[in-house]
Amino acid sequence: EVLRRYGQWLLRQKWEGVTVTDTHGPILDHVGRMRSQDPAYRLSGDGVHMGSTGGWLMAQSLLLGLKAPRESGL
After folding, report:
1. CB distance 57 to 65 below 8 Å
2. What is the DSSP letter of 66?
3. Cβ–Cβ under 8 Å, residues 61 and 21
4. Euclidean distance between CA atoms 9 and 63, whole angstroms
5. pLDDT tens, residue order, the chain (74 aa)
6. Distance between CA atoms of 31 and 47, rounded to whole angstroms?
7. How far is CA 21 from CA 9, 14, 61, 64, 68, in A?
8. Deepest in the core among 6, 33, 57, 63, taking most CB within 10 A?
9. What per-residue confidence (pLDDT) applies to 41?
10. At 18, is the secondary structure helix, strand, or coil?
11. What is the CA angle 9-55-12, rounded to 5?
């Protein structure tokens, strides 16, 4: 609950030159979609540390928030 409230506060901040990206929302959306298919779905084996899927969701959110190009052209 504390981290959720802190995240909401962060997303409301408007500091010049600072980008704040919501990584929690997309993760919650993913878990919600997966649990609609399998109520036992867990993103974390130990209840704390996300595996590769969680890392990918977080990285994807950060890249989109930073407006990174979708393809590098390399």
Report:
1. no
2. T
3. yes
4. 21
5. 887 888 888 888 877 778 888 888 999 999 999 999 999 999 988 888 889 999 999 999 999 988 888 776 65
6. 13
7. 12, 12, 7, 9, 13
8. 57
9. 93
10. coil
11. 15
CB-count exposure of residue 16 (10 Å: 0-12, 13-18, 19+): exposed
Contacts of 17 (CB under 8 A, 6+ apart): none
Q: What sign does the CA torsion over 62, 66, 69, 74 have?
A: negative
DSSP per-residue string spanning 31-60: HHHHHHH-TT--SBSSSSSB-HHHHHHHHH
3-state helix, strand, coil in the chain (%, to 5): 55, 5, 45
Tokens 């959306």 locate to 29
Model confidence over 55-68: pLDDT tens digits?
A: 999 999 999 988 88
